[in-house]
Predict the structure.
Amino acid sequence: MDPRFRVELIAATPNPQQCVFAGMHQDYSEDFVFADRANWLNETKAGEICVKRLLAGERGHYGPLEHAQIVLNVGWFPHSVMQQARTHRVGVSFDVQCLAGDTEITFLHAGGGLRKIRIAELHDLWTNGERATRHRQIRGRQGEKPGTYRRDCRKRLQKMRLRVLNEDTNIFETSHLTDVICSGLQPVYRLTMEDGRTLDCTANHRLLTPDGWQTMGDALSLRVRRDGTVRSFRRTAQVLANGNVAVGNGAYRHRGWLEQQVESGATPDEMAERAGCSTTTIRDWARKHQIRLVKSNTHFQPGFKPWNHNPSALYRQQQWLQHQLEKGLCAKEMAELAGCSVEAIKKWVYHFGLTLNKRPFFQKGMRPWNKGRGGYRLQLSEASREARRAHGRQITRRGSASHFWKGGTSSERVLIAAWTRQVASQVHRRFDHTCQRCGLRGSEQQLHTHHLVPVYADPSLGCQIKNLVTLCQPCHAFIHKHHQEADFAATFRPLKPVKTWPDKPRPLGRRLMAHALTVVQVEFLGSQMTYDLQVADPWHNFVANGLVVHNSMRYTGDRIRRAANGELELEEVFYLRPVGAYSDRQGKKYIYDETQRAIDLELCRAAAARYRDLLDAGYAEEHARGILPFDYRQHFVVSFTLRAFLHFLDLRAKLDAQQEIRELCDLMWPHLQEWVPQFAEWYAKSRLHKARLAP
């Protein structure tokens, strides 16, 4: 087997044997099978039952096997394998696809801005170079002749950040181009989405739907006439698009999810925790959907005791408060006696239904300095007034330093921070006002207190003074910015071993998520010049006109040029059988020796050089491609229903099939075993390599 041959799994129906079991069970049940899902057999048992009742004894009931689907990525196989495999069209889809020339491809600038380039323009830049025409007076460094030319910009295009979708997280990321392909004239159809955006593509172009990758024709159940015009399609089909900025998992965007949470009695805080966003985000989306939320409990949870909880405090005693009020003390004086805030005194006085004494503004006999004097007025311009307002906003005190601080209820994390600020001076004295990372001595204003065991690792250690060390401001910021909490704590003896810490939670962030749009119209545009892209691993997709589409897996073009120039090994592009003894379908034996193989390899080299020269001369790729050997290597994506997969093995894994396609089946076989082990076990015993065709 050629060492370059590869077959990798892209996606597969989860629990496929249960899926087949449900289809089989529903065939013979009058009840709604899904309602009994909790009582379904496990995956292994479901597979055994399906094999026994559907397949064993050549019963031939293959219909339920069409519900499970697997998608495989096939690489470096000769084109002849692709041609043979494409003859299987029932339950099988292949990725040979194209987009119209005016389709806009989305790229991202380094600063986050968007840049959209038409795919036809992108192909022109990729093939011919920059749009600006230059004039060469002398021969170029690579032997280029004098005259007008367009400077190559392929490397710059490859560095551009192409928007792709992470299919695991449903969040958009970036990747890079590897090739831009012209696919010639093909029938093109225009899809119109519910929001007005359109996409012009061929019927076999793969689109990402809520049900996975599907060709446009299959997703819409497209039916066309002989002249290509649309006869009918299924209007319920949806395609994933970009454009939704989300925080967390984005569940809060859906009205149904919000209503479900409200019905369960969840508060906005609980909903925010489940969705991975802020409470404000929950309230904003509830307001958009006109949903009334359950009122949040802003007080402490039952049983929670804040760090400053003291049931025996004087201000909590009604008798003490009454005695101080009878003495004529005001709230400030009572707060000084009790060692608490003025707001705490007010809270408990009102709680017991008592009345505060008014605070005297002046002592007896004291006369204000401005009593009886006339008023004054500042003559300020509007600009000066606004400057003063801005300065006031800048120096406004917040938190406990604010004049309006009420000292009320706060989250546990906020209370830990408040306690840390109170004990900061003790910590700095303990460490001699010296940073424990860089050794810098400084004042208390220059130093910070740092938790050796972070609060996220163990909140119970948040108010332990032994868990605090002194750091300067730059060192404190560096540790948290570069996630070095564990490395720094390892230099001490933390109260909790580093190995037992949980993973640091990632900050929320604004991310672009894919969302589904319904197709509302399909129209035939006739034959147009079409193009496609190749995208670097791991995500083989890109955004075209705001919709997520699959990239081409074709393996020609630039790689053949490079092989002709000696930059790439020739057998990386063309496939030749290894030296050895072979026989044809009629059993006639022959020897393929080194001499014959060297001749064939030289013919491939000459064809690659001719292909390169034709492209350099301005010939269309579809024209130049005609002189290439048939077995150039190709990538393609293939999807099977389970029934189609078994039928494919019936035909192509038999011992007299083409050697290369049998090797393809050999590489596909482990994926089938892992996906549907019980079906694979039955098939290996009863049908593999026996050419017994399924009905």
